[in-house]
Records
---
Amino acid sequence: GMFEHVGVGHYDGFFRKAAQLVADDGVFLLHSIGRSEGPGITNPWIAKYIFPGGYIPALSEVLPAVERAGFLVTDIEILRLHYAETLKHWRDRFLAHREDVERVYDRRFVRMWEFYLASSEMAFREQNLMVFQLQLTKRQGVVPVTRDYIAREEARLRGLEGGSRPPLRLAGE
């Protein structure tokens, strides 16, 4: 996501600006890769070859800036293994088209990208990486108390689309 490139030193400015742009009855959703342990450092290999300047934040680094900007946290969702599955599918597709990629990029890049996808998948499965979503508002009553409205809205939108999209499945279904 984009937030991993904002930088800890810019969180206050980022959330202050977001608070200026969000209407009083608006909702701000922040989706970011995060770490489930406290603040850390960026893997040196990732920093050098994949995401120079990137940093994966801990919630403990983000939430104080959210509060200082005047936002209320109305929901936090932690997507634990979801991104591991995403990375697995990306790697499978990448490998299925490896020869095509090698026509555009050199073998070194291809090996690095495969290593990045595989090691990132394992970090999400076995280490401390996750995706978090923060739902932020300026007032308590802007969103319903429970998440039930999400399924209702999804069904409504599916009806508008003529039911062309497959329904969302919940974990374990």
---
Amino acid sequence: MRLLVLGGGVFLGAAVVDAARAAGHAVTVFNRGRSRGRWPAQVEHIAGDRQHDLDRLSGRRFDAVVDTSGYLPVDVRLGAEALADAGQYLFVSSVSAYASLARPGEDERAPLASFDGVAPDDRSTAHYGAQKAACEAALRRVWGERALVVRPGLIVGPGDPTGRFSYWPWRAAAGGTMLVPDSPSPLQMIDVRDLAAWMLRLLESGTRGDFNATGPVDGPTTWPRMIDTCIAAAMQAGHAPATPRQVSEAFLQAEGVRLWTGLPLWIPASEADSQGFLAVSVARARAAGLNTRPLHETAADILAEPIPPADDARRDGRLTPQREQELLARWALLAPSSP
């Protein structure tokens, strides 16, 4: 298969390139060249920007296109038009594209976010979901029912530039008493390698349509199971066992701990509009062959890489060790008998 990857420099895009090479496909990457300076000899790299340089792809026909980097509707439209004669076009959207994620279990039939009033060049995270929905609409205006749209949830794994899930195996490896939210909220995430491999299988089989993509495929996990998994992976890697200490969500909120970023992955139960974000239906993806590896394997592979220092960008905005210990000390005074 002659595969064109729009993006391809970091994380998911890089995983798609790696999976495609391993499967024996001929891979071409089109991006600005800012995130990666060198490419394997088997990968053709064409430097360019979608808004100015798509003519560098003229005269080329690809069996499939994977757009891992489209965020602005105009970029997606230009790519879709320039590559309209490709065999397939897969756009990586997001579960954030749904109009509402208040209810767990939403599937691909749920309404998408409205992008009315959102500036077409708005790159702010506040309108991330609306822009992804607008990108989907831009693709469909060109490709119609031929389009393939994948809406991932939280993507995790080795090399994750956000460090969101990685925080937890890193923290488990640090040992000592470990602050954990006493959260009833479900958790979903997918290893970047599983997502990339499955997207390639969709293209290889000529699949079209819309798919949520996250894991575990047998249903969301829980905070206690996720924490136990990270501790077990850290111990397997030779680190001293950490001791989880559950702290109430009300206490964390009163102390001003930021949800999602300050304490990674934490979405308080009081955030009613977001309770379905990490609990979407993946029944359709599972029927289309999505498989996900055990979370323990993902955590272990994250710990096989060097653990970043405190000033690493992937730790920016996270709960610092000092702040964590302050919170644990305050919680011990308020609830000395809590687990």
